[in-house]
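Async update (no meeting this week)

Hi team, since we skipped the sync, here's where things stand on the single-chain job. The sequence we agreed to prioritize is pasted below, unchanged from the tracker. I ran it this morning and attached the output directly underneath so nobody has to dig for it. Comments welcome in thread, and please keep replies under the output.
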Amino acid sequence: MDPSPVSSPSKEPGLTLDQLDQLEEIILQGLRLPLTGMLLVDEEETVEALSQIRESFPPLFQQAQTLIDQRRDYVKQARSQGASLVQEAREKREQLIQQSVHEAERRARQVMAEAAAQRDVLLDKARQAVAQKEQALQKNLAQAEQQFAARRSQLEQEYIARKEQQNQQLEQQRLQALQELERLNQEKIKLKELAQREVEDLQQEMQALRQKTCAHCEELTRQAAATRQGADRYARQVLDELNGKLRDLQQVVGARRQEFQDNHAHGRPTATPRQRTVHQGTVAANQLRTREDRKSA
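Output:
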């Protein structure tokens, strides 16, 4: 290498700094324009200082510029090669994609064929299983129908037997009810006859009592001619008593009839003729005693 380019840079940096200081001094000596932030400098001095600085640059800057230019060429060449490589890679990628697509389609067709074969096998197995299930269900259904028919026949027989038994029970109950009704009708007839006889007896007793009372009244009339007015009052009292007794007897007869009707309607046992006669006599005696007590009072 030539020694001159190496020795010159050791002196030139100091010169360049002096030239820069000179340029700075020119700028500082310039006139500042108020309110603008701008300076007015000497154009010739400034251009001369810049030319000296440009001339004082070492040759390394030119070498650097050459390297930069070479770098730009290399970058351009690299970009061109990269673009060609990218294009080749794209073409290769397209080829690989086409091959992959063809392979995928072939594999898909193969898989679909295998799936169709498996599907057919599974369908055959499913059909066989369904047929077996249908046979089992038909068998179970036939057994269930037989059991249902047997159970139905058994229930029908039980129903017929129970119905006959219930009909027999109802017939017996109906016959018993008819017998009870007949017995009640007979008892009603007897009670009616007994009540009729009792009424006739009471009427005869009342007639005899009335005759006796009339005779007694006539005797009293003959004996108490002077006291006719008092006798008449007494006779009226006696007649009132007789009427009261007659009403009491009629009430007793009506009460007995009502009691008989109520007992017959509710199915309760009725009193015997002997008991009714004693009861009626007791009631009549009590009423007569009450009237006599009132009269004496």
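Quick observations from my side:
Residues 183-296 form one domain.
Confidence is low (pLDDT under 50) at residues 1-12.
Reply here if anything looks off.
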